[in-house]
Write a structure and sequence with these properties.
single chain; alpha+beta; Thrombin, subunit H; 6-stranded antiparallel β-barrel; 2 helices; elongated
Length: 144
C-alpha cells in the first residue's frame, strides 16, 4: 500500500485566519463608533444654565445643562427643535453654586443634533481658535 500526503485543510492553518480576524475586529470598532459618535468625553454637571433668546420680547429662557464637553452639550427642555436648527446660547454657572466670582458666561453658536422627550443635544459650532480657547477656559472653571 502506497501512502501519499494529503493537502491540509485551511481550517488547520491558523495563519490563514488573520484576514478574517482583522475584519471582525474592524467591524466591532466601527459598530462601537456608530453607537457613540461623540467627539469628546462628556462631563456631568448640575450647575450650568443655558440661556437663549426666543424672540418674543421676554427675557431669555433658561434651561439646565445635564452634561457638557468641548464639542457639545445636552440641555433639559420641554420643547423640541428640529435637528439642524442653529441656536445662539449663553452658558453660565449658577451663581449660587460658586463661592467666589463665577467665570464669565460664554456665548456659543450651536446646532441641534438630537432631540429626546427630556431635552436636546447640541453641537458647538466653533469656528475660531479664540472661541475654542474661551470654551476650554469656561469648562476648566466648572467645579467638580
Amino acid at each position: 500500500m502506497h501512502s501519499e500526503a494529503l493537502p491540509i485543510d485551511w481550517v488547520f492553518q491558523p495563519f490563514r485566519w488573520q484576514p478574517a480576524r482583522r475584519l471582525a475586529e474592524w467591524l466591532r470598532q466601527w459598530a462601537a463608533r456608530q453607537l457613540d459618535r461623540r467627539e469628546a468625553p462628556r462631563k456631568m454637571v448640575e450647575n450650568i444654565a443655558a440661556n437663549y433668546f426666543d424672540g418674543t420680547g421676554a427675557a431669555a429662557a433658561s434651561h439646565v445643562v445635564r452634561d457638557v464637553s468641548a464639542s457639545g452639550a445636552f440641555i433639559f427642555a420641554d420643547f423640541q427643535w428640529p435637528p439642524g436648527t442653529i441656536v445662539t446660547l449663553t452658558m453660565e454657572l449658577n451663581r449660587a453654586s460658586y463661592s467666589h466670582r463665577p467665570p464669565t458666561p460664554v456665548v456659543l453658536r450651536t446646532k441641534v443634533v438630537r432631540c429626546t422627550p427630556n431635552g436636546l443635544g447640541v453641537q458647538f459650532l466653533l469656528e475660531k481658535k479664540a472661541e475654542h480657547q474661551t470654551l476650554a477656559n469656561f469648562l476648566k472653571n466648572i467645579p467638580a
